Amino acid sequence: MCTPPGGFCPRGVGDSSGVRCLDAGLPDADEIDRTPDDGGDETNALVRFNRETAAACEKNSGDVLPYVGTTQAARDMDLLRHVLGDDKLHYFGISYGTELGGVYAHLFPDHVGRAVLDGVVDPTHDAMEEALAQAGGFQLAFEHFAAWCARQGCTLGDDAEDIVDLTLGLEETLDDTPLPTPDGGEVDGDALIGAITGALYRQDYWPALRVGLEAVTDDNGEVLEDLAEALGQHGGKGGTDDDTTDDTTDEQSNEDDAFRAITCDDSSNRYTVADVQSRLPDFLEASPLFGPGLAWSALTCDGWPVPGTAPRPEVGAPGAPPVLLVGNTGDPATPYEGAARMAERLGEKVGVELTYEGEGHGAYDSGNTCVRNAVDAYLLNGKLPDPGTVCVAEPLPEGK
After folding, report:
1. Has 331 been annotated as catalytic?
2. Which comes out higher in pLDDT, residue 255 or 174?
3. Which long-range contacts (CB under 8 A, 24 or more apart) does 158-167 make?
4. Which of 175, 210, 158, 204 shows the shortest CA–CA distance to 289?
């Protein structure tokens, strides 16, 4: 979310009055089951954790919490434009950055320069709908991985369906009996899902995921634990990264705290356990593997001390110049349909779509030459791709 020197740190992120929710009295996030299935103690523990985290955020960063939303970040961007003396703001946003770009276009349509949104957030979704769409997106991406793995002759199964079923069985088994690792840790069901989720963000990670899953079937969790660590998906209950450190500074990262603060400031949705339980069948239908965790993530803002802005972001920007929207058909985190819906919400003749038939989250960072040439041509020369342009990914080399 904060990527200087190429970008800037929005409010609450990194050194921009960084939000800190950490509190010595909080339970270790890795000990919280993010997919409670008992309807009792595990569910209550998750609710308590979210509420205690919210209280710690208010205690440690209460002065800044009301001012870290996307609308404030968009206004800050326009102030940067003004200070730099630019008439227009040229912008490239990926993932959440597409929501920020859309909100900026809504607030300042006359100041939009050449803008590219890659891995586009669906602005028609509220928080629960977004989580449900992600469940389907990650399921589709994992099925694509499983089909690739089967073609490679991996030991997980003869076809994609076998591999998906085997992985679901592994998750259930590890949830009941975590697999110890040599460093004294363990790989449980949540850690397995965390590692898979992280690996689906880039197709380059698929070979490592294959090795990790094959090792788990041989009762070796070390490879998958190492993969999760490398991808920022730490093991243990929940597979989250609430206590990670920045390797370059040896200081504790506030990435998760800032993400929570911005998410909860933006969204007015405040879901309850009953809300989640009523929607669980839909999430399970979308993905028995990823659905439960994403459904329960809807409780993240329970107890948040600041009321959210709105159920959905406002991105309508009639009269703005063209905005290039790059949608990836295999994107797990921001499913492909989001690009078309962003185009519709931006307004007639504003959103221009470019399709990437590939895998992973976003398209530009995949290195695909077609995507890079199209994006670069617009940002550097103002030349938009022809309507209906489709870029196709190169397949992973056989045996890799």
Report:
1. yes
2. 174
3. 164/289, 166/217, 167/142, 167/192, 167/196, 167/213, 167/289
4. 175
Give the sign of the dihedral formed by CA 78, CA 83, CA 87, CA 93.
negative
DSSP string, 138-189: HHHHHHHHHHHHHHTT-TT-SSHHHHHHHHHHHHHHHHHSPEE-TTS-EE-H
Distance CA 149, CA 129 (A): 30
> What pTM was estimated for this model as a whole?
0.91
Domains present along the chain, CATH in parentheses: 87-124+313-392 (3.40.50.1820)
d(CA 48, CA 315): 34
pLDDT band of residue 238 (cuts 50, 70, 90) is very low
Distances (CA, A) of 112 to 63, 81, 336, 372: 31, 10, 24, 21
Other CB atoms within 10 Å distance of the CB of residue 352: 19
Q: 95 an active-site residue? A: yes
Q: What is the mean pLDDT of residues 84-106?
A: 97
Question: CB neighbours (10 Å) of residue 31?
Answer: 11
CA distance 116 to 378: 8
Catalytic residue among 118, 122, 265, 331: 331
Q: Given 16, 95, 267, 366, which residue is catalytic?
A: 95
| Catalytic pick among 175, 267, 361, 366 | 361
